[in-house]
Specification:
mainly alpha; three-stranded antiparallel beta sheet; 440 residues; binds s-citryldethia Coenzyme A; 6 strands; single chain
């Protein structure tokens, strides 16, 4: 029996009235599956001659995506619908990587094949190791990562054609697999120690710890608790919707640039202290504060508009509640320190006291500034033996699968076009050239 015809629901729209021209324009409202609906302004300029204006994109949806959903008020983070807390508790980084890339959790067979696909790309072209020789030993490892990852496009010519799905897949596997190898090489190079080749029998996190901390002169024993903590840290940093570095990767990719170049652009954007560089900045800040008695002075500075000091690891463009990743990270902190037999970590005590005081302070409460993913991660990484300069490199290792998943989604979107924002121009109107004799 055919269903009774119901009147089509009226299309939702916003009506724009221009009081200058007295013209009105209907702007369609598009609903997502959850979260804020959007006002579709794609025809605005053609129909009205107006641009929208939103520096920092505080109210702008740049794309449609099915990968990650964040509810900043609820402190909710879903990857393909799965809450980050559940993935951190029950999953592992390779499985989360598969989920982000393919949209669903893998079957056992799919997981085995994916792990093999990634594992057999962990080595880098041997000539790449001489590439490091061009850097000073004291180069920041993020500078090395920008250079070496971008240079991968000079080594892997058979996976540069972004219009070939097979080449896109191989480039994706190469990037996910080689990031830990290159990161470990950057660390070894800074230490003056020999590079350690990957071992395919190890898990993704175990392999990274092995390549970073093993030395040829000694047998290396992986610590399963630290490997689990590393794996969980990778899960927590894997993807996060349209953040600055992901938007950089999407914009670079929208011009047709090859994936190695796009990921190098993402690494560069992540490096900033307002973004992924914050984990390194948190440790520097805690070192600057030094003692609990100095906390009030630094809280005062963080609130002073004339002081550029900000509480690093606090605040977020989207989260106006606890960053769910920070919660998991704080729990992991205690586990790792416990496993390492660190009875008393002054930095952790200082961080927890700083969090307590800040969250009681009106300034932070009113602005809904809570600890973010970067607030506790550095304490774990320092306890695991990483220098602070490597913290953002570890963030980049994990985020590579998120960048790739978002880049893949954009490339496969039939409506995709080159990203090319416009502007509000407030410079000089047209004027004629003056010879130098007539200037001044
Ligand atoms: C990451 O986008 C992502 O998803 C990023 C990320 C990811 O996974 O990809 O989550 C990873 O980058 C986390 C953020 C790491 N950065 C930091 O911890 C650096 C410190 N935080 C701030 O720089 C800031 O909170 C940002 C950059 C994170 C967010 O800045 P916004 O959204 O532009 O907020 P804002 O600057 O407009 O701040 C609103 C108010 C301002 O005060 P008023 O002008 O209203 O008086 O809050 C104040 C700011 O001055 N404020 C802070 C503060 N953060 C915001 N004041 C003191 N200390 C801070 N940390």
């Amino acid at each position: 029996m055919s269903q009774p015809k119901t009147a089509a629901a009226p299309k939702k729209k916003a009506i724009l009235t221009d009081t200058v021209t007295n013209k009105t324009m209907d702007l369609p409202i598009i609903d997502g599956s959850i979260g804020p609906s959007v006002i579709d302004v794609r025809k605005l300029y053609a129909d009205t001659g107006y641009f929208t204006y939103d520096p920092g994109f505080t109210s702008t949806g740049s794309c449609e995506s099915k990968i990650t959903y964040i509810d900043g008020d609820e402190g909710l983070l879903l990857h393909r619908g799965y809450p980050i807390e559940e993935l951190a508790e029950h999953s592992n980084f390779m499985e989360v990587a598969y989920l982000l890339l393919n949209g669903d959790l893998p079957t056992l067979e799919e997981m085995k094949k994916f792990e093999k696909d990634i594992t057999y790309h962990t080595m880098v072209h041997e000539q790449l190791s001489t590439f490091f020789r061009g850097f000073r030993r004291d180069a920041h490892p993020m500078a090395v990562m920008c250079g070496v990852v971008g240079a991968l496009s000079a080594f892997y010519h058979d996976s540069l054609d972004i219009n070939d799905p097979h080449q896109r897949m191989i480039a994706s596997f190469r990037l996910i697999a080689k990031m830990p190898t290159i990161a470990a090489m950057a660390f070894k190079y800074s230490m003056g120690q020999p590079f350690i080749y990957p071992k395919n029998k190890l898990s993704y996190a175990e392999n990274f710890l092995y390549m970073t901390f093993a030395v040829p002169a000694e047998d290396y024993q992986n610590n399963p608790v630290l490997a689990k903590a590393m794996d969980r840290l990778f899960i927590l940093h894997a993807d996060h919707e349209q953040n600055a570095s992901t938007s950089t990767v999407r914009l670079a990719g929208s011009s047709g640039a090859n994936p190695f170049a796009c990921i190098a652009a993402g690494i560069a954007s992540l490096w900033g202290p307002a973004h992924g560089g914050a984990n390194e900045a948190v440790l520097a800040m805690l070192g600057q504060i030094g003692d609990k008695k100095n906390i009030p002075e630094f809280i005062k500075r963080a609130k002073d508009k004339n002081d550029s000091f900000r509480l690093m690891g606090f605040g977020h463009r989207v989260y106006k509640n606890f960053d769910p990743r920070a919660q998991v990270m704080r729990k992991s902190c205690h586990e790792v320190l416990g496993e390492l037999g660190v009875k008393h970590e002054p930095l952790l005590d200082l961080a927890m006291e700083l969090e307590r005081i800040a969250l009681e302070d009106k300034y932070f409460v009113e602005r809904k500034l809570y600890p973010n993913v970067d607030f506790y991660s550095g304490i774990i990484l320092r306890a695991m033996g990483f220098p602070t300069s490597m913290f953002t490199v570890l963030f980049a290792i994990a985020r590579t699968v998120g960048w790739i998943a978002q880049w893949k989604e954009m490339i496969e979107d039939p409506s995709q076009k080159i990203g090319r924002p416009r502007q509000l121009y407030t410079g000089h109107t047209r004027r004629s050239y003056k010879p130098v004799q007539q200037r001044g």
